[in-house]
Amino acid sequence: MPATTLDLLDVPLSLFSIPVVWMVGFAPTRLRVKMFRDTIGWNNLEPRTNLERLEKDPKVDKAFLLRLVRLEGAHQNGLEALPLWASAVIAGNMVGMNNRTLNIYSALFVGGRVLFNYIYVAQKTKAHSYVRCVVWATTTGISLYMLVQSALIRLRSV
């Protein structure tokens, strides 16, 4: 009998979310490099000087420059979120947390990180920045909740 969507929730898939979250964190960098290549060219020999070169170019549109800065910010935030997320998923799996629970939280976290990146890069108003903060707090809360639940499961087993 073929697996249904509901059956997949019970399959141990949560560990796959770790490399997916890593890729989501690097997606803004890929876009940023492409934008550099399309304008002044990407200096791969000294990649951390690319933004400075662009800032010194008087022909560069300020909105374009700010978008590149936000792409870098989204990337950095993804790198900051990854260790907490990976720890939560690994801890949940180590203590035998229910696969369905792990998979649901993994899907919510990945979706939240994609949404975070989108809002971070596209934001234009202070209200957008507050929505971004809510999404960040929600995904961070998911990681912390899983870590606490893992600790409680472990405590109950001793």
From TrEMBL:
<keyword id="KW-1133">Transmembrane helix</keyword>
<feature type="transmembrane region" description="Helical">
    <location>
        <begin position="127"/>
        <end position="148"/>
    </location>
</feature>
<dbReference type="GO" id="GO:0016020">
    <property type="term" value="C:membrane"/>
</dbReference>
<dbReference type="InterPro" id="IPR001129">
    <property type="entry name" value="Membr-assoc_MAPEG"/>
</dbReference>
<dbReference type="InterPro" id="IPR023352">
    <property type="entry name" value="MAPEG-like_dom_sf"/>
</dbReference>
<feature type="transmembrane region" description="Helical">
    <location>
        <begin position="102"/>
        <end position="121"/>
    </location>
</feature>
<keyword id="KW-0472">Membrane</keyword>
<protein>
    <recommendedName>
        <fullName>Membrane-associated proteins in eicosanoid and glutathione metabolism</fullName>
    </recommendedName>
</protein>
<dbReference type="Pfam" id="PF01124">
    <property type="entry name" value="MAPEG"/>
</dbReference>
<feature type="transmembrane region" description="Helical">
    <location>
        <begin position="12"/>
        <end position="31"/>
    </location>
</feature>
<keyword id="KW-0812">Transmembrane</keyword>
